Amino acid sequence: MGKSNSKLNEDELREYKGFLKDCPSGELDKIEFQKIYKQFFPFGDPSRFAEYVFDVFDENKNGKIEFKEFICALSVTSRGKLDENMVKLPPDEDTPEKRVKKIFSLMDKNQDGKLSIDEFREGSKQDPTIVQALSLYDGLV
């Protein structure tokens, strides 16, 4: 995969070379992925989470991560430069405190200053960002 014939940019080409160094076959199986993943978390056992991450990266569900899956996952999970990822929030949600206050007031249907489990469940279903955040934990707990 020469630079002049490649559709990869320089960073992706560097990642590809690193991927091939770690995975000469061009594929990464779950056991090897867990070994690599554990290097980033030396003081705990991230096995279950690494298994979850592997399953997310393995888009075609063949039990291996090919470079294309790897680079797509990196692209999605990498943050890039801060200013490239900034989203302009509405004034009533532009701080974590304001966002929490707004969500709480929308969920607290009886306005008693507390959330019942039913209010939380129903309110969560109405906010796509909460649904997405909670779905990240689906199957982990």
Automatic annotation (TrEMBL):
InterPro entries on file: EF-hand-dom_pair (IPR011992), EF_Hand_1_Ca_BS (IPR018247), EF_hand_dom (IPR002048), Recoverin (IPR028846)
Q: One Pfam family for this entry, by name?
A: EF-hand_7
Gene Ontology cellular component list: cytosol; membrane
* Residues of the EF-hand domain: 45-80, 95-130
The residue stretches assigned to a coiled coil in this entry are none
One function term, GO molecular function aspect: calcium ion binding
**What PROSITE patterns is this protein classified in?**
EF_HAND_1, EF_HAND_2
Q: Write the record's keywords in alphabetical order, separated by commas.
A: Calcium, Lipoprotein, Metal-binding, Myristate, Repeat
Say which family it is in: Belongs to the recoverin family.
The molecule here is called 104_t:CDS:1
